[in-house]
Here is the input.
Amino acid sequence: MHRIAQIGAGRMGAVHLANAARNPRLEVVWLVDPRPDAQAIAASAGARIASVDQVLADASIEGVVVASSTDTHLALVKACLAAGKAVFCEKPLDLSLASVLAAEPELGHPKTPLFVAFNRHFDPQVRGLRAKIAAGEIGDLETLQVISHDPAPPPANFIPTSGGLFKDFAIHDLDMACWLMPDPIIEVFAWASCLVDPAIAKAGDVDTARTLLRDARGRLCSISNTRRSGCGYDQRVEAFGSTGMASAGDLVTDSVQVWREAGPQTAPRHKDFISRYAKAYSAEIDHFADMLAGAAQPETGYADSVRSLRLAEAAAHSVAIGAPVRLQGT
Amino acid sequence: MHRIAQIGAGRMGAVHLANAARNPRLEVVWLVDPRPDAQAIAASAGARIASVDQVLADASIEGVVVASSTDTHLALVKACLAAGKAVFCEKPLDLSLASVLAAEPELGHPKTPLFVAFNRHFDPQVRGLRAKIAAGEIGDLETLQVISHDPAPPPANFIPTSGGLFKDFAIHDLDMACWLMPDPIIEVFAWASCLVDPAIAKAGDVDTARTLLRDARGRLCSISNTRRSGCGYDQRVEAFGSTGMASAGDLVTDSVQVWREAGPQTAPRHKDFISRYAKAYSAEIDHFADMLAGAAQPETGYADSVRSLRLAEAAAHSVAIGAPVRLQGT
Amino acid sequence: MHRIAQIGAGRMGAVHLANAARNPRLEVVWLVDPRPDAQAIAASAGARIASVDQVLADASIEGVVVASSTDTHLALVKACLAAGKAVFCEKPLDLSLASVLAAEPELGHPKTPLFVAFNRHFDPQVRGLRAKIAAGEIGDLETLQVISHDPAPPPANFIPTSGGLFKDFAIHDLDMACWLMPDPIIEVFAWASCLVDPAIAKAGDVDTARTLLRDARGRLCSISNTRRSGCGYDQRVEAFGSTGMASAGDLVTDSVQVWREAGPQTAPRHKDFISRYAKAYSAEIDHFADMLAGAAQPETGYADSVRSLRLAEAAAHSVAIGAPVRLQGT
Amino acid sequence: MHRIAQIGAGRMGAVHLANAARNPRLEVVWLVDPRPDAQAIAASAGARIASVDQVLADASIEGVVVASSTDTHLALVKACLAAGKAVFCEKPLDLSLASVLAAEPELGHPKTPLFVAFNRHFDPQVRGLRAKIAAGEIGDLETLQVISHDPAPPPANFIPTSGGLFKDFAIHDLDMACWLMPDPIIEVFAWASCLVDPAIAKAGDVDTARTLLRDARGRLCSISNTRRSGCGYDQRVEAFGSTGMASAGDLVTDSVQVWREAGPQTAPRHKDFISRYAKAYSAEIDHFADMLAGAAQPETGYADSVRSLRLAEAAAHSVAIGAPVRLQGT
Here is the structure.
């Protein structure tokens, strides 16, 4: 049993905490969280409340799950690494590419593992798709098509601190595209609109976008994003290759159907990312346990954070200038 | 162009007439039908009205489509064969097995082709399934599962002349089972109820049944019939073999889907046999054209009629006695 | 945390033990099992090894999971109930209806809960189907169609102690049919063959069956069983009603597809009951925790055991005599 | 019966000729085509060979199907309209927008119907999708996603006369997008590559593209094109609205499935546009018969030709300049 601590027990924090508590290889010793009911939350995982300093000072703690608010990630990750802890950081490291790049000395090649959790890499559907591509089942990959639609927009007051559609939401798709495509992306083009909620426009953001990516070979990727699908959490990828296509489809909640005169009614998609990516989140924690056991290096980390953030900023910039944006250094 | 005549322009007759009119190898010369609007119906196919005697006397007529009421089939088929015409007879030859057996001298080995049209044999779905089985794609066939559900019951006044559920409706499934299974059926068991419409019970018939068939090797087939599905024309077959299963699924009307919170709504099944088996009916007429051209022997004929009628009578008898019925001569 | 013990850590026992260990409301204190590696297995769940007597004598133990070999179930269940423990008994209580009936005084109305775990009742697919039926979405239920095919036959040396196809395997389908149908089954008919493996016939059993059930109203159910599908664990139910149909379909392992010239290849079914019914097994343990918390009565117990065993014996008897079997007392 | 003539009996011409011959309201009197076997082709439709002048001079001819090579369309359409014939012109009117615009005096508001056949408008899938959108089933349409992939590239020697990927192939998708979206497109962006066949690049064309369209409201459409799918003719549309999504999916050839250990194999997509859009082509001819009967105005004509050609030229221009192209006059 590896002893770990967790910082932050908000929405994603609660998911990680429960998964860690159920993981037979992990023991959650400490929870750091200021909220009034933190003690009860900690107890549900068999943990107790502590301060960040206490966690850092506890030499028995091998790893820390950082799931606090985004603006605290960088500082906490640095402190944990400095204290010799392995780190599981909920994405993103930070909303500013500049800040993340400035942290390269501490985060670029840490002595203990730094795992930045991008959930798509741990989703069995996306992994299965990637395996099919890697096995050559569609020949050479030529283009990608990503549908990534949220069921419903976040509260309007979240928008100003979200980093915007591309950094907050599309970043998952940008990260996944990089993971699936064989060569680096060199150019980005995006159009975006506010069609879902005028409050989002008022907050300076967009809610609907189409983003195109291109690599040096001319391979193309298009990404469709909207903050509101009206029909559940729509998460699909299609990969088109020289000898066929492969896809990772949506998950629906069950296999029950009802047929009447009008036709069949089948099960809906999952309602949110917590249920849709439940297996991915559980696998992330298990991957962290592997790291603590010395059995794995982080599958996603600092470099992925930089890469996806750079693409997100480029996409937002493309929307602003109405033209393609070539990536620096490519 | 082969010159043909058609007798009867009721529901199925209209289907055959239109298909024959569209077939580039057939010319419908005569239609025999007493209904007031028969002349207009004939004209729509480029034909004219005639009597049966005129048709039989017209030496230029190579083939006759018999689509009149069932009780006239046997006599008309005999007369047409006697006149040297090839015959396309809508199934069944007759509702009485005894009568059909009595007609063996004339119908058993006719000099001109006698095609009794069992539509399942010409349905691309069932043919495709049979081809998969024949190609060994599921190893040795072991059991069959047939779903054959009508969308809605026929008018109650049709029931007394229908021959009953087994001869009128299940006969298609019995015929198909014989066609798909490698060895002869030796025993039949059936349970049936009246759950759909009490008027059917009052007319002495049943509307819901489960029929089991067995061959000497122990292979099994089950057939589900109901006169009313509430969800379109449900026509499916599953074949289970030693190395897998193959199935012929329902056809739906289109590929349009609508997804909302509750899940997707996809297209309904076909509403009746005329649209569901449209390709089969068209292929039947084309098969008849092949016969007239000397390019084919009837795929289904007298022997299939006897075999399926025998099974239908056995199933009805099983219901009556509440026990399995062993087939005579097996 | 409710303190429990478990007896037996074989194939199903391992599943229950892991689920209990992960359940936040249960603490597995003791494991009773004679196998050499029992101590390691116990440790994986945070438990220690004990004898049955020690378990019964430990007043702090509220419940016992009985997952030992079938022939020990009845005696262990009686002992646990006598000791005032709540019992989770892996099905079946016993392979002999007579023995189960003889245990009625102790098991019929126990003071502490007796939960006999029939997994279909806890499968989200079957529960979802039942809820649709109960909500009237298909009108009045008229007939049921059950497909229940194992991926591959058990080892031949298991057959003689299995109780035979109907008690060992079809019993799940018989139980489910009773649960889904609104009125009691009054009559059973079955045909069975040995098509999969001659060793099964040599052991006196069959491997392929079609079973029909009938209630007093004339509602019908057909069940298809085979010991070997060649295509994964095939577990489907279709319910046909007066206004439509509802079904619980197979679960496949993922949503990944590969399309090539020949068409799409999609994911296979689950390979065994452990993965196919993983959620059901987990829900069973959670249901047991509810009982220990006083929040639930067993959804399935002694009466369900009697009912399904009676049907299984009737089906086997029907095969033996080649005729329908009317249930006693109906 | 309306008497018509047809000019051109190539690949599409053969489709239209057969459909016209089968249409009960049309009589194909003349075929104009120089190929050696033209007489036999004409005879298969019950027609005879004539020159263009003979057709124009035959006052009994009400309509002409123009299916000759694209470079002859404009002149023939003008001549037919001048002779008072209704015209069915296979798309496109011409490969040059300038030439089409120059023909506005004769073609813009002709006295007899000018039907330019865009097959998507007559495909039951696309029509069904459009009807769902029009019925408000997905609320307000916000974005569109079009997949339009050819099974295999055309012969390399066709490329130089094809007009290029956008005018030859994507034009169908551009036309459909305009038909489905509520407001005019005001801006186009496209990236394109040559990934399929270097011979296509050598001929100055591309074979793979992603095109984005935008209207004044900010609604977006993305189109995916490739000359080679490796998996049949992939033709899908997804429409995302404020309350859900609707889609028109691919058609597969049949409903037969084979399941083995690896999972199910289901039927492939259609292999080419002739079988995929068979119903659309038949409906086009029927629509023409409606026009001749005075019962319909052309659903697609000159204005649609101009609109889609303008978009195709804008998309190609966007590729050339690497920037979005704003449409003139918008």
Observations:
- Chain A touches chain C at residues 21-22, 24, 44, 124-125, 128-129, 132, 137-138, 243-251, 254-261, 267 (CB under 8 Å).
